[in-house]
Amino acid sequence: MKTLLCKTDCVGQGWHVDKALLAIRIVAGIIFVMHGWGKLTGNPSLDMFSGMVGGLGFPMPMFFAWVVALTEFLGGIALLLGIFVRPAGVLLSIVMLVALGMVKKFSFPLGDVDFALLGIAVALAIAGPGHLSVAHKMMGKDCCGGKDEGCCGGKDKDMGECCGGKGHDHKH
Length: 172
Description:
Layout: H1 2-9, H2 15-41, H3 46-55, H4 61-81, H5 85-103, H6 112-127, H7 134-139
Helix pairs in contact: 2-4, 2-6, 3-4, 4-5, 5-6
């Protein structure tokens, strides 16, 4: 069983993880940019959206409508580019938690998309952008305290039990 799991579910298989993070960032980034842009350009209008925000009991509804619209738009751009992914993930998680809890009342299947985007935002807040990102290109090996962690927390060459003891080369 362990051998089968190592072949199918190895954590940190180098570029596989980076490609998966890139795919998740692109899909979520497009969704957030579209929703933020819609609010900023009138579909729905910020007036309509702020009315909904006020109806939820938020003080200063127009202010919070702008905060949400800019968080979605700029956070989506950050995900697409792979910069400031962790802070964007945290802010987008808050937006999605409010949407799921206060707007959709944790009702499923009505809140399915919000729940999925919440999970994606939380995962990106934890994982960061991966190697296939502007941040990594700008920071390189300096990004992780002077070392490029790679597979299994920096144990590429001496992984022991991880991935059956096979090293993974990361070419940058």
